[in-house]
Specification:
Order of helices and strands: HHHHHHHHHH
Structural class: mainly alpha
Strand content: under 5%
Number of strands: 0
Radius of gyration: 24 Å
Helix content: over 70%
Largest sheet: none
Oligomer: single chain
Shape: elongated
Number of helices: 10
């Protein structure tokens, strides 16, 4: 008897085989997410100029995202100022140049430390909150109800949050700058007997508007990144309540990496100018 004929399966092309790799799927998913965030941001910016302007919604989100984050921003800045001041005062005192403590601390806080730490701590809270809120609305079909009533979810839900977060982060950064500098002056006065006048005079004569403004400008970019990532992950939730939890965790990871990467790129660009 002859052997039964077997139908040969079509061989996978090299491109199809390449897309089956876990790393390739991750890269494709990253590219799709980046493209989706870009499209959503463009839609939100365009709808920001369409009437009605949603000023009430923006004010509400400024209060919920900003005012309720004051405590964590203040605590983060205070401990950052304490630690940095102690470290620099300890090492500079060995060389007898404690007069420069205020200079080094103020530049470190204003340019890099306060904007980044505020974005990582406050941004994690804000981004995860936005994702959880919008994700819950999606899994409970509230977004479908908005579309059925003729409302635009991007204009009603995304645009106010992006504007509010972009406005809130610079304000929180300015507040954190003041608190961090005050905490640093207090600890070096108690630990190394450096007078307040010498500390603040050194800081004021060193820091210029560019040093202060660069940190504030970075925080505005960080706020935009946090809001866009939170809104996109919230609107793309799948899998019910478990999907909301996964999206919230992914938002924190995405915003943390994006903040650090964008800080490096903006610092590199600023130093090149």
């Amino acid at each position: 008897m002859s052997a039964p004929a077997t139908s040969a399966l079509p061989a996978k092309t090299p491109w199809v085989a390449l897309t089956d790799w876990p790393l390739t799927r991750r890269l494709i998913g990253f590219a799709e997410s980046l493209g989706g965030m870009t499209v959503m941001l463009a839609q939100a910016v365009r709808r920001a100029f369409e009437r009605p302007l949603q000023l009430g919604e923006i004010a509400y989100h400024v209060e919920t995202l900003g005012v309720r984050s004051l405590s964590i921003a203040a605590l983060t800045a205070a401990f950052a100022g304490l630690v940095i001041s102690l470290q620099f005062a300890f090492f500079l005192s060995k060389f007898g140049v404690t007069d420069t403590v205020g200079k080094v601390v103020s530049l470190t806080l204003f340019r890099e430390l306060v904007p980044v730490l505020t974005a990582l701590t406050v941004g994690g809270r804000i981004g995860s909150g936005i994702t959880a809120e919008l994700g819950s609305m999606k899994v409970t079909e509230q977004l479908d109800a908005l579309r059925a009533m003729g409302a635009d979810p991007i204009k009603r839900l995304v645009t106010p949050r992006i504007i509010a977060c972009t406005l809130v982060m610079p304000v929180l950064t300015v507040l954190a700058d003041v608190i961090g500098l005050a905490a640093g002056a207090l600890v070096v006065k108690q630990q190394y007997r450096i007078p307040y006048e010498r500390f603040f005079h050194s800081a004021v004569t060193t820091v210029d508007l560019l040093d202060f403004g660069s940190g504030v400008a970075k925080s505005a970019v960080f706020g935009l990144i946090i809001a866009v990532a939170g809104c996109y992950k919230g609107l793309s939730v799948e899998g019910g309540t478990e999907g909301v939890g996964r999206a919230t965790t992914e938002t924190v990871a995405i915003t943390s990496v994006a903040v650090c990467l964008s800080d490096f790129l903006m610092t590199k660009l600023a130093l090149a100018l």
